[in-house]
């Protein structure tokens, strides 16, 4: 299993292990019940495994892909014992994630040829969007990068104020206007300010409303168009933040936002408080959009760069 022989940051790995504890406990409890009394992987075991994966919020389509992969292994190897099932699952889930998350990123890297590097953050209210922005700003600043935040969620005074709190905490500049201001105007001012300050990274918060998809689409399109007047080809990344604890609802949010705008990466938050961590696997596969960050705790260091090998290793390690 050289695939998994990788030296992880001890602190990051411990945080990830702890963050996935509820998901692991739930998953392996269900899996144990599904294979009790069985000696080999047969149709009955596969049917039970399918139920376990679906009930663990991996998603129906992704579950079927995993089952197909395991069926192919059973047909090829002729006999597989249930004691090998964990290892097989580990390998096949890693393989599935590899198809979307091509690289094993380990730090908060940005392209050197794009300055400022502009990230537009989207997602419904309450998923941890502003907190994710604050933690991202912290990580980029820790790398020695100059960061500017833009409070373009102007429909809620609380959103502007919350982003201000994070800007103060991380000690990075923020561009804001009054509640009700034109979001595109805030984005324009943010990029103009970032260029004048020779900033490395710009993170733009946007409104999290899904009740009218057409309005959302028009608004995000306008924000993009106005930003491109200052820096061409922006935004460089459209980051969709999803609350992992909502399980299947996160799938629906991803579906709506990918229809409204071109999402290029995902952040899945609040994995530490839920048994629904399997949603990371399903969303990554279903939408073929790389998961870039995961939230595994409330601490400022608990937003991690998603690394598929670390995730799978933690998911299948130290099980009871």
UniProtKB/TrEMBL annotation:
Family (UniProt)? Belongs to the GTP-binding SRP family. FtsY subfamily.
Residues involved in GTP binding: 123-130, 205-209, 269-272
Tell me what this protein is called: Signal recognition particle receptor FtsY
**Record text on subunit structure and interactions:** Part of the signal recognition particle protein translocation system, which is composed of SRP and FtsY.
Query: Which InterPro entries does the entry mention?
Result: AAA+_ATPase, P-loop_NTPase, Signal_recog_particl_SRP54_hlx, SR_rcpt_FtsY, SRP/SRP_N, SRP54_GTPase_dom, SRP54_N_sf
Asked if the Swiss-Prot or TrEMBL record annotates the protein with the keyword Transit peptide, the reply is no
Q: What is its main location?
A: membrane
What CDD domains does its record include? Answer: FtsY
Please give the GO cellular component terms listed in this UniProt entry: cytoplasm; plasma membrane
Q: Name one GO molecular function term.
A: GTP binding
| Membrane topology field | Peripheral membrane protein
Q: Which PROSITE patterns match?
A: SRP54
**What's a single GO BP term from this record?**
SRP-dependent cotranslational protein targeting to membrane
Q: Which UniProt keywords apply?
A: Cell membrane, Cytoplasm, GTP-binding, Hydrolase, Membrane, Nucleotide-binding, Receptor
> Which gene specifies this protein's sequence?
ftsY
């Amino acid at each position: 299993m050289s695939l998994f022989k990788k030296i992880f940051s001890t602190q990051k790995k411990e945080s990830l292990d702890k963050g996935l504890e509820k998901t692991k406990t739930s998953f392996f409890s269900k899996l144990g019940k599904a294979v009790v009394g069985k000696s080999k992987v047969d149709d009955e075991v596969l049917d039970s495994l399918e139920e376990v994966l679906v009930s663990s919020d991996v998603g129906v389509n992704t579950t079927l892909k995993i089952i197909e992969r395991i069926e192919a292994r059973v047909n090829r190897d002729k006999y597989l014992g249930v004691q090998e099932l964990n290892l097989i699952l580990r390998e096949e889930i890693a393989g599935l994630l590899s198809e979307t998350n091509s690289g094993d990123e380990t730090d908060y890297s940005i392209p050197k040829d794009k300055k400022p590097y502009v990230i537009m953050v989207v997602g419904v209210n309450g998923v941890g969007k502003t907190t994710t922005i604050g933690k991202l700003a912290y990580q980029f600043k820790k790398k020695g990068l100059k960061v500017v935040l833009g409070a373009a969620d102007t429909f809620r005074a609380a959103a502007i104020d919350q982003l201000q709190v994070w800007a103060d905490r991380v000690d990075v500049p923020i561009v804001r206007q009054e509640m009700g201001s034109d979001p595109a105007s805030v984005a324009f001012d943010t990029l103009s300010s970032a260029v004048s300050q020779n900033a490395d990274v710009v993170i733009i918060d946007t409104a999290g409303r899904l009740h009218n998809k057409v309005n959302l689409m028009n608004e995000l399109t306008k924000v993009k168009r106005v930003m491109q007047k200052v820096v061409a080809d922006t935004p460089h990344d459209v980051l969709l933040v999803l609350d992992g604890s909502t399980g299947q609802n996160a799938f629906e949010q991803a579906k709506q936002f990918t229809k409204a705008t071109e999402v290029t990466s995902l952040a899945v938050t609040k994995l530490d408080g839920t048994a629904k961590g399997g949603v990371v696997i399903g969303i990554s596969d279903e939408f073929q959009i790389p998961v870039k960050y995961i939230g595994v705790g409330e601490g400022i260091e608990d937003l991690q760069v998603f690394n598929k090998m670390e995730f799978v290793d933690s998911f299948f390690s130290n099980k009871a």
